[in-house]
Every structure is written in structure tokens, then in C-alpha cells.
Amino acid sequence: MSTSENTGEDVPFDLSKAAAAATEELLPSKSKERYEKQFQIFEDWRRLKNVTSLTEDVFLAYFAEKSSSYKASSLWSTYSMLKAVLLLKENLDISKFCKVTAYLKRKSTGYQPKKSKCLSRDQIDKFLLEAPDKEFLLMKVALIFGVSGARRCDELSRMLVDDIEDQNNVLIVHIPDSKTKKPRRFVVVDERNLATYRRYLELRPPSTPHKRLFLNYKKGKCTVQPVGLHSFVFTVLVREIQFSCA
Fold first, then answer.
1. Is the domain of 52 the same as that of 92?
2. 97: left (phi > 0), else alpha (psi -120 to 50), else beta?
3. Do residues 57 and 153 both lie within one domain?
4. Looking at the 3D structure of the chain, how many domains does it have?
5. 170 falls within a domain
6. Residue 3 above 90 pLDDT?
7. 2 is a domain residue
8. What sequence ranges are listed for the domain Tyr recombinase (predicted)?
């Protein structure tokens, strides 16, 4: 269904197909599934409520219902994703619905988001120096690359052994796929950090059938199984580091 009139009747089929393909690429590639999921949730809600229109009051009712279980930040996130998908699929710009944005702003009044957990430089240094390798070597290497290169969790999980050049007194680390889509690199020069990385690399099983750098690590040994993204969630790193430094 669409709120816009069909203005493409005279457009050749191949051009219409190309335009449709280009339109699909307008959603963020890494989070497209989340956007589509939010749109599907909204569509399911419309069917449940027997709603066929896409008016301002419909969206106001939808967000009012969601506000009973969503935090203010989640409401805004849902709104942002729906806005993007509806603009593509229905040619509808819900940012023009002033009552909806006013309602969301009102729900945000007094909302205090949780403060992000942070690590001090002293905590990081203490962890790298004192935490036992047998339990924390994987996290040490992840922290070295995460701090030195300001790498995100998904970038850490995708790192390959080929991304790192060991030139004796320095590690040159290449980042082929960053958020800006532009390759970049950084270096690691601290001798202690170089030694930590090399200790971890020496534990890599010769039979590893892939190039992923980070492997599951337990009791001083690596398996061939690559580490999943969840292990690099920052809150997990913080918790383990704070525990080891207690």
C-alpha cells in the first residue's frame, strides 16, 4: 500500500527496476534488518488494530502504546527507523507530523540515560600489567587494539592476522573496512604491548582454517573457533577488567 500516487506508469521497466534496487540501498547496510523489523512490527500492529491509513493520529496512537514499555531513547530510535523505511516504501515523511515529534519530546522530558561505563588510563595499564595471561590474554590483546586504534567491537571481531604487520619494534595495523568506508591504519609501539600480542599469536593452532585474529581462549589455550561479536561488547570488557583489577 502507498500514500503516494503512482507517477511511474510511463517509466520503462528496466529503469523502474534499477530505481527500486537503488532505493533498497538507501537503508544502512549494517542495520537494514533492524529497520525492516521495526517496520514489520508496525505493520503487524496496524493489522491487529484494523488500521489501513497512515495518518498522524495513527502514529501518535502507536507511539503512545509503545511508551508503556519503551524507554524514551527506544521510542526515538523506533521513530527514526520507521521514518527512514516509510519514506522509502510509502513515500511518507513522518517528520512532518508535528504532534508525534512533540509527543516524543514530551516523553523525553526528565529522562536520564544511564551513564556509559568508562575505564581510566590507570585501570587499563593496571589490567595490562597485572591481569594473569592464563585468564585474560585475549582481553588484553583486544584492549590494546581497541584503545590504540579506537576500534569498534565489530571491527575487532573481524580482524584478520593479515591486517597486522609485525616489524620487530612496531606493529602496523590496517583497518580495511571502517565506518567511513576509507581504509586507515594505526601503530602499536609499546614494547610490553608488542610482547603481549606475540604471546597470544604463538598460541594460534597451526590447523586454524581461517584468518580471523581473535580465537576462543580458555585457560591459556586457543581453539580454532573465532570469537563472536558478543565477547567484544564494551560492557563485557569493562566488567572483566574491573573484576581483574579489584
1. yes
2. beta
3. no
4. 2
5. no
6. no
7. no
8. 114-246
Closest CA to 171 of 213, 221, 139: 213
Cβ–Cβ under 8 Å, residues 68 and 47: no
The verdict on residue 222 lying in a domain is: yes
- Which of 144-148, 149-153, 228-232: highest mean pLDDT? 144-148
Averaged pLDDT, 219-243: 71
Between CA 103 and CA 22 the distance in angstroms is 33
* Exposed e or buried b per residue across 211-244, where buried means at least 16 C-beta atoms within 10 angstroms of its C-beta: ebbbbebeeeebeeebbeeebbeeeebeebbeeb
The helix (run of H) or strand (run of E) holding residue 185 is strand 184-188
pTM, full prediction: 0.52
Domain that holds residue 232: 121-159+196-245
Number of other CB atoms surrounding residue 169 within 10 Å: 8
Classify burial at 6, counting beta carbons within 10 Å of its beta carbon; exposed 0-12, middle 13-18, buried 19 or more: exposed
152 in Cβ contact with 30 (< 8 Å): no
Q: Cell numbers 609499546 label which residue?
A: 190
Q: In this structure, are 131 and 238 located in the same domain?
A: yes
